[in-house]
Structures are given as structure tokens and as C-alpha cells.
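haha ok so turns out i had the wrong file open the whole time. this is the CORRECT one, sorry everyone. sequence first:
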Amino acid sequence: MTDTVEKNEAVYVTDQLIADDIDAYLESHERKTMLRFITCGSVDDGKSTLIGRLLYDSKMIFEDQLAALESDSKKVGTQGQEIDFALLVDGLAAEREQGITIDVAYRFFNTEKRKFIVADCPGHEQYTRNMVTGASTADLAVILIDARKGVLVQTRRHSYLCHLIGIRNVVLAVNKMDLVDYSQDVFDRIVADYAAFAQSIGIESFTAMPISGFKGDNITTHSANTPWYVGPTLMDHLETVEVLSSIDADKPFRLPVQWVNRPNLDFRGFSGLIATGSVKPGDEVRVLPSGKTSTVTRIVTFNGDLDEAVAGQSVTVCFADEIDCSRGSVIATADNPPQTADQFEATIVWMADEPLTPGRAYWFKLGTQQVSATVQEPKYTVNVNTLEHLAAKTLELNAIGVAQVTTDKPIVFEPYADNRTLGGFILIDKMTNATVAAGMLNFSLRRSQNVHWQALDIGRKQHADLKNQKPAVLWFTGLSGSGKSTIANLVEKKLHRMNRHTFLLDGDNVRHGLNKDLGFTEADRIENIRRVGEVAKLMSDAGLIVITAFISPFQADREMVRAMLPEGEFLEVFIDTPLSVAEERDVKGLYKKARSGQLKNFTGIDSPYEAPRNPEIHIDTTAITAEQAASLIVDTLLGDA
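then structure:
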């Protein structure tokens, strides 16, 4: 009764404020804090029904929606009305047809005290990737448990992921209490079971409450059916819990730069969302990775300049000095900046059907920074049921593992536990542009901090000028037997006669020395190409024209080498020979061995070859001779020089 009286009084005050001063009401609405939260747990624990109840009881649905819902055949009872709460949050037709949630559904609502964004996350294990997506920006997690079933595998999985992602506000909502006669013994037993698991994974505290999304018990008002429960209602807790932005405001200032704003010559600002801390005009800041310092002169927003900006606000910052700052830079407190490094230990949640390929280059996106990165073989994976560390060669779909990540250039970061913006990253497949993993940086490796690039007075330009040529890497790729080595050898002979300084790296020759420790698994092939790419880069730095002849079957690995070199110095040469023709030649007898099963992982037989999409030079060996091909390649190279 008290809850109802208080709610009616709040509505009366609000109505009066709207009637007396609409501007004051709108201003009070703008000042409301925002809470992002997720509902998660096992399948059919009542997540969608709970969200529907929150939306309905907060009176944030339109009358025409209510009318439509009341007439639907699939109904549940609520105080004299019959409403299908699941329909309020069911955003995908496929979900309705299958009866399951297959993606994250976001809903927005508000009360007089706070605004909310809620993510309804799928319960099925195969959609763990979707749950991680929903949790990545959440301040709070409502973990539902069916009172009839207790703590299940997905309860533990989602709890582990929430803690891993950094959600520190956890509500354990023991749902469907009406189906166990509101038994306090059942509730206490479930809470005790969950508490033991939560402690084992590092969840220091959580708020447990008995609810019924179907009946509305303890959602917005206390229920007479649970007189033994004296804690807050779910809505009371959501309205009063501390949000992440207020915690982040007390941390050192960090602003990842999204773009440089320069509408005219008199204005130059750097725009982005403040991740942590606060900033005022007059504050000294440091821009990373350059390390340059300056003083803030203005904080500009669409509505005018600010005297102070805090975490969660999008602003444009102006400096007193013209210093190097661009997209991907991080503006930070001058005397307490974040770290820069290029090697890390990270916890990774693998989200792709195709497993991780150790050593393969992926796009690594952290905040506004994007670089190329490789992941080494995992140190271990985690069994979320037993928390046991298991040995693994790779990461499969939904696996959680710890591995070393190496980026091709230093990035600005902080451990995820300290800063979710500068510590959380995603990995993107370079070929498909699909997000394949989400990760959390734990710490940088010590060798990353201790090894620094040594500046030298004589560089690649001086080396090239001495040889009177432009460095380049001619990267020959094609099937075994296509003619790569033959044509590459002819190209080098022609360049040598023209007094060009060259070096030929042949696939078989390199495996006699530098790469003699590598086999022919996919991971070994990737490492083979990575090493050759690094050698080719060093040789081009010496001013040489480098010619390589490697099958190099994977497009991503060839692009990895391209990214190592200055633009225009990597020329992909596709020696295009049909498999049938290459197999007819079979000079080394390798196809015969592969066909008989004596040679595993042979390109074109039981290992794929990814043909170049847009090579700089395309040689059709069925149309021209090796001599003609060599002349064409040399002409193209020198024509570009």
C-alpha cells in the first residue's frame, strides 16, 4: 500500500511540474542519469517477460500498443488485464517463429528518477557471442534463475562472462517464485548455491531478490506473497544503484580521439567521448602515442562551451599549441597518462564458427585505434563449469582463453580492469570483415616495455639512393608447379643485367635454413610467411629489390606482408596456373604423393589456395611463356619505379 501511495504522489508532483513549468520538467529529465543493464541466464528463465513487465509497470508503452497486445491470443494475467509481455520486447520475426531469442534486443524506458537501456540477451550457448555484445556496455546484470531449476550451466557461464567483462553490479533474480509457492527455503537454497559459485569466480557481492515477472511480484512494488523478503524491489534497486559513469568520473582523464574537427583555419579541435575522468580549460594534457603536451583552452559542445566535462560526455577539446593529434590518439592527464605497448596477455572470447588460427593477422580494434595483430597459441582455455584451466591449441566457438597478442605497432591502453574503453578490444577477420572475438587486455608483457626501436642515421632512403633504385618486394604466389621459381629466377637475371641490386628468396631454399623448424600445418605456414615478410622488409630497407617465390596460399597472410611495407612497394604477382596443368607438370612428384595420402596439407589437394583478388601483376601461364612473363614483370616494376 505504501508503495502505491508513494507512486501516486510522485505522479502528482510530476504532473504539477509539467503544468506549471514545462521547461523545468524537460531540464530535470535531461539531468537524469542513464543505467545500461542486461538480462541474462539460461533458456526460458523469463528474461523477455521480465523486461515486458518493467516496461508495462513503468507506464512507458503507448495505449495503442496495449490495445493490440490485449487482443493477442498469447496472454498472461496482470491485475485484471491480460498482456503478453514477451511481445513487448520481441524484435525479430525469426525469434517469434523459433520461440527463442537469437540476438540482443535493446529497449529504452525511463522513470521519474532515471533513464534505462536494457539488453535482452539470448540464453542458448551457441549465442554466447550475442550475450557478450550486450554485456560489453552494461553497468549492471540481472541474472535470472528459474526457481524450479536452480543454478544451471548457463547461469554459471553468463555470470563468469559478466564478471570477466567487468560488470560489478549483479542482481540475482530468482524468477517464477509463483511456481514454487513463494517458498523461502527454495529461494535461500538457490542463493546459497549461487553465492558459493560467485565467490569462486571473484564476484564479491550481489543482490538477490525473489520475483515473478509473470505476476509482478517484487518488480515495482513489494509483494504480499513474500513477507519474508525485506530487500528492495527490482525497480528500486535499478533506480538507485551507482552507474558506471559516476565511477569512471573519479578516474584519470582519458579521451580517445574520434576525429579532428577543423571547419576553418581559426579553429582546430579534437572530438570524442570522454572515457574516464574530467577536464577543464587550463588543464595540462598529454597526447599519446606522441607524448606531446599542451593546455586545454576550450571545451566545445553543440550547446556551447563547458566549464568542465566529465566521463560519458561527447566533447571537442581545443589546445593552446599545434601538436600532433589525430584519430586513434588518446588525450590524457599530463602527469598520469596511460601506457603504450605492442605485446600483451589477453583474455579472449572467441565468437566465430571458424577457430582461431594462431599467428594469422587480424584487425585489432581498441576504442578508436585499429592496428594489425596476431594471437599466439592459447596458454589455456577456461571451463566455466569447473573453472579448470585446459590446454588448447586454438580457440573454438564460445571458448574463453588466455593468449599472447602482438600488435604491429604500439597502442595506447590500460588494463581492462581499470578502463573498459582502453582495455577492451575486438578482433576482425581481414578477409570477411566479420568480428571473430572480443577480448580484455590483462597487462603488457615486460619485454614489450624493455625493447625499444633504435633510431639510426642511415635509413632506407640513403640505402636506396646509394643503389640508385627504388626498393620493392615482388611477391610471387601460385600453386606448386605453377612456375613461380622459374619466372622469379628469370626476373632476377634480367634485373641483374640492368645493374639492379636484387635478392631472391625461394620457398624451398628458405626452409633449408631460416624456417627449417616449421612444418606445413596452417599455423606453420602462417609463421613461414611472417618470417619471410620480415626478412623481405629488412632487405627492402637496405634498398634492394626483393623477389620472393612462395605458394603463400592465404590472402590474409599476403596482406600481412603488404602491411609491413610502405605503400606502393609491395607488388603481388599471381602466377596463375590451373591445378590440372600444375599437377601434370609435377616436377617434384609432390602431387602424386598428396593424391596417395603420403603428403598431408598439400595446397590444392587437401589444403585450400586463396587466389589473389586484385594482384598488381597477373600472369596466365597458359597464355604466355616464362620468358614473356619475366619481361612483363620487369617492365611493370620499372615502369612503376
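Residues 10-14, 60-83, 86-102 have pLDDT under 50 and may be disordered.
again sry for the mixup
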